[in-house]
Design a protein that fits this description.
The protein has three helices and five strands. By secondary structure, it is α+β, with helices and mostly antiparallel strands. It has a five-stranded mixed β-sheet with strand order 1-2-3-4-5, sandwiched between helices. A hairpin with a 5-residue loop joins strand 3 and strand 4. The two termini are 26 Å apart.
């Protein structure tokens, strides 16, 4: 697998994040017992916050020229940042890419952290 590149997502990355978002929620639906909305979509509150709220930050994870995941950080103005959402597509899992990505995200915001997990 190509090198892992993690970069802060900007407005130009909205389409990529919107395409990865349902894959993330589909994976979590197994644990949360959540079904899609009647129109086939999933809730988008976290996605919208990660893109537009100044207290959040979205990161895209790349392998070569392919987007392979994302990380959403919230509580940027608090004593402890929160890794709210972290996702790596199945084809890139178990390669060490996720570990390198989370290390890069944590390093971007030094200090205390809360990390949610299922």
């Amino acid at each position: 697998m190509a090198d892992c590149v993690v970069r802060r997502a900007g407005a130009e990355d909205r389409d990529v994040l919107e395409r990865l978002w349902p894959l993330f929620l589909h994976d979590l639906s197994e644990f949360w017992g959540v079904l899609p909305n009647p129109d086939g979509t999933y809730r988008r509150e976290w996605l919208e916050s990660a893109i537009g709220d100044p207290n959040w930050s979205a990161y895209l994870i790349w392998s070569g020229d392919r987007p392979v995941g994302f990380a959403f950080v919230r509580a940027l103005d608090s004593d402890a940042r929160v890794l709210n959402s972290f996702f790596v597509v199945r084809g890139a899992r178990r390669s060490g890419l996720g570990l390198r990505a989370v290390q890069a995200v944590l390093a971007a915001h030094p200090g205390r952290w809360e990390i949610a997990f299922q």
